[in-house]
Amino acid sequence: MTVLLEVSSLRTEFATRAGLVRAVDGVSLRVSRGECLGVVGESGSGKSVTFASVMGLVRPPGKVTGGTIFFDGRDLRDIAPEEMRAIRGRDIAMTMQDALTALNPALTVGEQLGEVLVAHDETLPAGRAARRAAIRDKSVEMLGLVGIPAPETRLRQYPHEFSGGMRQRIMIAIALACRPQLLIADEPTTALDVTIQAQVLELITDIRARLGMAVVLITHDLGVVAEHCDRVMVMYAGQVVEEGPTDQVIGAPRHPYTRGLLASIPRPSLRGQPIRPIMGQVPDLVGLPAQCRFHSRCPLALPSCLVEVPMMAAGPGRRARCLRLEEVAA
Predict the structure, then answer these.
(1) pTM over 0.85
(2) Which among 56, 149, 162, 185 is least surrounded, fewest beta carbons within 10 Å?
């Protein structure tokens, strides 16, 4: 498949009173056309900041300080802000974690959908009446696409008049309004019950197949990744620690952190047995020493892990960052 998004050695830092926080430190990734990439890791691992950097949404005190971001052959770090605004929403779209706070409570759903179409849809007619009619028709079409009943009526309603699952569908409709090539879904099932989670994820999978777009699914849930993603990228403390085809990473993890994530998932087959959590805390990202960032929580840590920085070791379609990679794989 053709590569749509290619990020290389991305670094994003935040200036704080405590010092410089390396939220994203040397992240490299690829997303091909039509592919779904799952991105997993604990809170604070750098998942959302990585893709906010791709979208050009990092603002002071944050700054992208290094690396390249190529989308469809263009370097997004080397284009003018107005060009980036044109790409954002039209070619790359992103849904935020909390739909209630991401949607504007003072505007109707139709007005918020219309804003996106006015900003990015070059096929709208010139005349005012024809333009308004086209925006309304396209807005109704998008709400219907994401499964919202009576879309003509719902266009006139405000976000608080919808349930959590419906608000998430509206966020997806706004993101898909201009048929982007890449959808970045940041925790699209946050605060939803299990049934609604399944509906939202099936919706994204279905629309991905119908529109042929690529999807990046940012989540904490490895079960979601196993069911919906072609490849998975595991992040820890601002770095990628493992990446590869979903079935291979979940079936035979090569990094101790990935193994720990999988071991901490409740399973019906292990009923009555205690869940094995990953002990300890994520390290402070201010002034990190040159060593393995997972060593203080790793059951396989060696003295050399305290003084040597593990590099990403590449294999056939797999990458992992561990000094004991061969032993873990075995």
Answers:
(1) yes
(2) 149
